[in-house]
Request: fold
Amino acid sequence: MPQILLKIKGLTKSYRLGKRAYPVLKSLDLCVPEGSFVVIMGKSGSGKTTLLNMIGLLDRFDEGSYHYQGVDIAGLDENRRCSFRNEHIGFVFQQFHLIEALSVAQNVEIPLIYHGGYSYRRRLERVKQSLDELGLADKINNYPNELSGGEQQRVSISRALVNNPDLILADEPTGALDTETGRQVITQLMNLNKQGKTVLVVTHDEEMKRYATECLRLKDGVFLKEGEA
Ligand SMILES: Nc1ncnc2c1ncn2[C@@H]1O[C@H](COP(=O)(O)OP(=O)(O)O)[C@@H](O)[C@H]1O
Ligand SMILES: [Mg+2]
Reply:
């Protein structure tokens, strides 16, 4: 039996606009085993990004519990949340979120700088290794606007990997790419999964579900049961 990486129970989140609260996630339960490739499908507005932000410790939930490797996430103060996120989780976004003014190497280096404690030599070593894994060794001194969309997404995957996290979270990673380039990105995520990373993707790309060890559907803030549309 694989170990449980993270376990969520009764997760609830509302956004407040003025005096009204709009519920977006309604008492979700989610269990992610180590080494799995979880795909969460759902239409635009179903709450996918909100859920990913909760799992990735980018935002706080209102109710429920969240344990990651047994650690009670709700009990962490802001500093601990940040260092926990930096150490355990890598992010991949639809629009890549690369910094245009920085080179590929400098973009990938960012999580190592946040982490602190690494010498420049060690950082460069890790950056090279991470870019090499994604087949981008020859792009190390380029700038994001000199790369194709697929290459930019691979740079962002290198950046997600550079701290050697256990979990990769990807928010619509193929959303800004054509079908063929999107497939290459899916293949890269699958390779990482084969190497032992747990991967959780949210998407409305039906193609992704073929690769999942578990596929869940989110609709209006709840997971649908099998067979429900
Ligand atoms: N920061 C926010 N403030 C208020 N409402 C938000 C905010 N972020 C998202 N929402 C609303 O929450 C719902 C779910 O959004 P989101 O999680 O982005 O869905 P998805 O990623 O599936 O498209 C939408 O109705 C959206 O308008
Ligand atoms: Mg979204």
Observations:
- DSSP finds six helices and ten strands in the chain.
- Residues 4-223 form a domain with the Rossmann fold fold (CATH 3.40.50.300).
- The mean pLDDT is 94.
